[in-house]
Amino acid sequence: MSPATALVVSRPSRRGFTLVELLVVIAIIGVLIALLLPAVQQAREAARRMQCTSNLKQLGLAVHNFHDTYDKMVPLAIAKEGHSAFSLLLPYLEQDNLYNQLNTMGQPDRDVSLTALTSDGAKGLSVFMCPSRSAREMSGNGGNHYEGTGFAAYDYGILTYHGGNTGWDEWNLHNDASQSNQRQALRMAKTNFSHVPNLDTETVTTWSGRDSFARVTDGLSNTALFAEKHVPAEKLGACCTPENGERDGVIFNFGSWGRAHGVLLPVRGRGFAKGPQDVIYNLHNAGEPQLGSWHSGNVVNMLMADGAVQTIAPTLSQVVLERLVICNDGEVNSIP
Predict the structure, then answer these.
(1) Which of 18, 235, 240, 336 falls between 20 and 30 A from 9, CA-CA?
(2) Which of the two residues, 171 and 58, has the higher pLDDT score?
(3) d(Cα 89, Cα 211) in Å, to the nearest integer?
(4) DUF1559 domain spans which residues (predicted)?
(5) CB of 53 closer than 8 Å to CB of 301
(6) Which pTM value belongs to this model?
């Protein structure tokens, strides 16, 4: 057969996807994503909450190691403008280098190493931060004496309970004469000053722990030490205002609104936030929420004195919360 007369052999054509078929496939993929995405988000939040729990357990272990070393619990703080338990626990959180740069003596709110303030460690220690909140490393710079400057943002606070005034009175927490009214486990250090202390010129000469675990007669497993603090979404990362106060500088805060680094106001009359959007009108007012988180369900992780971490629902009654913080009243309350 000549090429001119050769038969042309045809091949069957390939049919492509129709528009309807493509739309069906896209719809199926969309449904699968819609089904899987919540599960992925829940898994991520579960991992974040687990990391938050781990952070508090590390703090609990540090508290016990401090007690093993000094036979005393870590102090609430050294002085009103001095370093709090968070700074004093740094050597037990593998942060010896940062701790060695801090000066726990001298004028507490002024005499601190510039190296410590600018070091990478002071910008934000992961052990002090809950991953469920937006990450931020440093508090803002206020720019004046009142607003101050905070260093090393943090998400956990030291729980306190005062038997007297429920409003804001700095001396309720810090004045040595008022320590008998302090009902929480961690109280102020036994501190000697070069002269009578006041707001701006007190100078620490020596300090030591005040209490051992023997103070916690209600039992270590029934007494709370630390918990997640409430930070309104609009105040996250802000420094030292009447609404934000001492909340964001755990290693060091300048300014008269930036004292008590990591120390929460007494829980008497102050409970849980309803969520991240729960606004604080004035931190110093009685009744303002102290505890809160950005976890699913707004549950709050709480460190007990025995080192265990309990997950607390924001529906926990105010009475039970206060009894968990009081360490020696003989009224033991279990967490539902």
Answers:
(1) 18
(2) 58
(3) 16
(4) 41-313
(5) yes
(6) 0.77
